[in-house]
Structure formats: C-alpha cells, structure tokens
Amino acid sequence: MTQDAIAHALEEIGTLLQLTGENDFRVKAYTNGARLLGQFNGDFAQLVAEKKLGTIRGIGEALAGKITVLATTGKLPYLDELRASVPPGLLEMMKIPGLGPKKVKALHDELQIDTIDKLKAACETDSVANLKGFGAKTQMKILEGLRFLGTVNQRVRLDQALALGELILERIRASPGVSRAELAGSLRRRRDTAKDLDIVASSAEAEPIMAAFTTMPEVLHVIAHGPTKSSVVLRAGDGSDTVTMNADLRIVTEEQFPFALMYLTGSKEHNVRVRQRAIERGLSLNEYGLTGEGTATVCQDERAIYTALTLDFIPPELREDTGEVEAAAARTLPTLVERRQIRGVFHNHTTASDGTATLAVMAAKCQALGWEYFGVGDHSQSLSVAGGLTVDRVRRQWAEIDELNASFTGFRIFKGIESDILQDGSLDYPDDVLAGFDYVVASVHSYFNLPEAEQTERLCRALRHPATTMLGHATGRLLLRREGYKVDLDRVIATAVEYGKMIEINAQPRRLDLDWPWVKRAKAAGVLLVINPDAHTPDDLELVDYGVMVARRGWLEAADVFNTRSLKDVEEMLMQRTR
Fold first, then answer.
1. Cβ(266)–Cβ(274) below 8 Å
2. Same domain for 242 and 387?
3. Distance, CA of 440 to CA of 202 (rounded, Å)
4. What is the pLDDT of residues 418-442, one digit of tens each?
5. CA distance linking residue 501 with residue 527, whole number of Å
6. Of the candidates 50, 45, 81, 76, the residue with the CA atom closest to the CA atom of residue 63
7. Are residues 208 and 117 in the same domain?
8. Do β-strands 373-376 and 344-345 pair in parallel, antiparallel, or remain unpaired?
9. What is the pLDDT of residues 68-107, one digit of tens each?
10. Domain that holds residue 323
C-alpha cells in the first residue's frame, strides 16, 4: 500500500473512532499520524524496511506497527473490525456539508438514524430540529446538504475522470483491429464533473476488442457485454484518490465513426439543434450517418459533418446549445484560447505560507514550462492556519524576489499576495503595505454563511479597493464537497467592470471557479479574466490546463485572458493599475 493510501487509512480510523465514541486522545493519534505521513518527504519504503518509522516525529510505536502492517500487507485487521462495527450509512451521512462525526454519532445514538433516507425522514418530521444541540437552523442546513448530495452523488471530478478515461482509451487504441478511438460524452466537452465514461471506437471486428475491454484490470463489474456495446464499472487508484465510474464502449464501422463520435459527445441539446438544421436542408442526421434523397454523405471526420450543414466546426467544449450553432452559421465562433498561449501565472503559494516548494523552485518550474513570469501569491496574515505572512515576512519575501530577479534574463517574479477579504470587505494589510505589491489577489477564506446581500457587498467592497487587482475563486465552491457561498455574481461582475478589476478562473480541479456560464457572462460584460492554478507545489503549476478548459467552455479567446500577454505587456498593465 502506498504512503498516501496509508495516510488515508489512518484518517479513516480516526473518523471511525469518533463515530464509535472513542476519546479525543486516541482519535488525534490517528489523525495526526495521517497528517504527518502525508507531509513526510523522505524515503518511506526504506523506513518501513528498516523498521525506523518511529524516527518520524509524532509516530509512536503502536502507530508505527499498524503502518508497517498496512505497508507490507495492504490490510489491517483493526481497520476491518472498525468498519464492521460502524453502519455504512454513517459514513455516507458525513458527506453532507457541515455534518461531522460528532453530530452523526448524536443522530445515531438519539434517533437511531443510520441511513441517508432515515435522516431525510427525520428532518421532514422535525425530529432533528427537536434534538438537543441541533435546532431548526441546523436541520435546514442538513436538508440543503441532502439536496446537494443528491446532485453530486456518483459524479467524479474532471481531472480524475480524464486520467482514468485516457488510461482506458490508450488501451483500446492499442487493441488489434482498432482504427480510431476517442473519449466522448461530457468528458470530451470538459465538464467540471462526469458521471461516466463514454468511448467510441471503429473496427471491422468488435468481439476481441469487447473481450479486452471487459477484462481490463480496472473492471470491477461487467454490467453488459454485447457485440457492439459493453458497459462496465471501473475502479482505479487507492486511498482518497480511488475513482469508481461506469464506462460504456461503443464500436462502429469506420464510416460511422464521425457520426457516432459527434452524437455521443453531445450535449443532447446541441445534437437536437444540429439535427434540426439537417432537416431544414432535407437531410437526416443520426449516430450512423447523414442521408438525403436516398443517398449518404460520406464524412471522414466531424468537421466534414458540420461543413455539410454549412457550419464552421464547433469545438466540443462549446456544444451546449448556448448560441454556438448560430455563431457557426454566421462564421463568428471565437478562436478559443489554447494552453500554449499561457505565458505565466499568478496566485501561487510557496513554503512562505502553505506551499511545499521555495520561491526559487517554483520560479524554476515556470521557466522549465517556457513561461515568462511567475506571480507569487502566498496567504496574508489573517490566515494564520496556512502560514499567512506578517508584514515583516512580506518585506523579507520582497527582498528575496529582488535578489532572484537580478539573476534572471527575460523572466520575472511578480510580488503578489492572496489577501484575505475580511468580514467587512476590507483587505488584510494597511494601504501602505498593499501599495508595495505588484498585484493583489483578493479572496474569501472565512464567513461563508453570511446572507447573500452581505456577502455580495463584502466582495464588491474588496473590488472597489484601489489595491485589488483580481478576485480569487469567486464563489468559494469545492466541487462535490461544498457549494459556493450565496452571492450575487451579476453585481460582483458589474463592480469588477466599473472598477477595472480582473476575475480569476481558479484552475485547481477541486474548484474550477468561476464556472463556465459565469465566465461567459463575465466576458460579455467586459471583464478581463486570468487563469491561475492556485499552485501549492511545482507540479500544481500545470493545473493551468484545467483552467484553460473552463475558459474554452466560456468562449474565451486569448485576448480575454490576462496571462496570455507578454512580460512587457503584463508589466505595463500592472503598473497602470497600481498608479
């Protein structure tokens, strides 16, 4: 078992102990052990082999023994016993935002609630509201959480789904007899989450490909195995990174492939619009071909299908029936931004706050990626839990940046900060300190439950501050884990336009915030957007790819994205904004 998987197992033990009513001391022993193991950067395998896990500060003898068992056998009887002692529904209940182990245990002990359905029923009869320590407000939040859980259950984040999909796709492409194969569905359209994988392939002989697909190592269960379509349940990864998804493989002829790919990519609404356009021209379009007056139109690829309907090619990311068909007919589709056009990024963290790499290492990674600039945006002083920088530490970082910049040619580190937006909408440093930064990312990290009007005014006040350059992760959402706070984004966007501020597309796959419909609205309003990876490690810098995917779904071109500009242009624009 891997180091990360073991850390996840220790975290699970801590949670299960809380649900069984174990004392806090024992619980913390496991949760702290999980944290320490997750942060350990040494040779874990060697420590296990040499029985020296106890040299990791905070790992005692008993815990070291359990870690060793997990590392060498992949199992731990103690964990299995704990799992058997706790109803599975209690763990399911903990997926509800704001419902932790102590509250779940109270619900189980007092009301014998051990499933999601029983919890919903208890809320609907006010039994939860009448329970000591809960009340009507908590009950309402649980019901809201249940509705949220219902919308996200069984969905998988884009980054996880794409990694699994590309693995399976690569295997299918390597199968003898496969001419072409592609991912389809919402994953090809780059939606932020996916419910299943859709794969389409062309071959003259489907049977051996289907046999290979249904017996891949990741297949947990075969739902259906047919001559041209099979469905399976896949599982990959371990620990907290385990992904379980349904996957469908459709095999068609080489002539049918473009039509099947287009149809299975969707969206349903887009397909309806395109089929209607075919009908208006006396044609019939479906997943097998394009026909009219007894003859079939031969199309080598999707582009040829759109051409046959007098449309420009519509990239998959735009196929949501939000005006793309009309734009394709009028030859006004945007030239979508591409990853290669990104020249640098802002909103990144170093070891000065909660990052894992130094300023120099992060800058070196940016240079290796071919970028011209790196904007450091460590946390500000109020976020002490993440190592927020005091004023003295800010000034020391500025000196370090000056020293590094003196050694660069054609590359620059910009002095930035991710300033907390305080409850009243003010920023986290005095104005004279804020004036020393090249740019300021203003973000919310607290008070998520403010009323909508108050939260909206909070963000707008921050945008009105002269030092603010860009708004970070505007809604605070965490995909599949937490809804964004209540905020009037139309007013926030209008304020950004009025005061000439940028809004971030946070490319961290757990966020992808702004969501693409709001990206499109922000562009239409005249907001300049900036794609940031919110990087905490050197590898995180490459998460900018996911931000580009969101930008493309939001119809953005290179000119709409601040960090497609050259170093010289960025320097000039930041200088103008800080005058």
1. no
2. no
3. 51
4. 999 999 999 999 999 999 999 999 9
5. 7
6. 76
7. no
8. parallel
9. 999 899 889 999 899 888 888 888 888 776 788 889 999 9
10. 255-332
Q: Are 260 and 348 contained in the same domain?
A: no
Handedness of CA 401, 404, 406, 409 (dihedral sign): negative
**Are residues 304 and 386 located together in one domain of the fold?**
no
Are 137 and 165 found together in one domain? no
Q: What is the CATH number of the domain that holds 223?
A: 3.30.460.10
Looking at the fold, whether 179 and 218 belong to one and the same domain comes out as yes
Report the distance separating Cα 313 and Cα 383, nearest Å. Answer: 47
Token digits of residue 22: 């174990």
Last residue of a domain, one of 152, 167, 182: 152
Residue that the structure tokens 């000034």 belong to: 395
- C-alpha to C-alpha distances, 223 to 202, 249, 252, 293, nearest whole angstrom: 22, 12, 20, 39
pLDDT band per the 50, 70, 90 thresholds, residue 143: confident
Q: Which residue has the tokens 């009219």?
A: 292
- What pLDDT was estimated at residue 202? 97
* Element containing residue 419 per DSSP (H, E): strand 412-420
Domain boundary, last residue among 250, 279, 297: 250
- Backbone phi, psi, residue 115, to 5°: -145, 160
Q: Tell me how many domains the chain contains.
A: 4
Smallest CA-to-CA distance from 548 within 495, 500, 506, 503 is with 506
**160 and 146 share one domain:** no
Distance in angstroms (rounded) separating the CA atoms of residues 120 and 65 = 41
Model confidence, pTM: 0.79
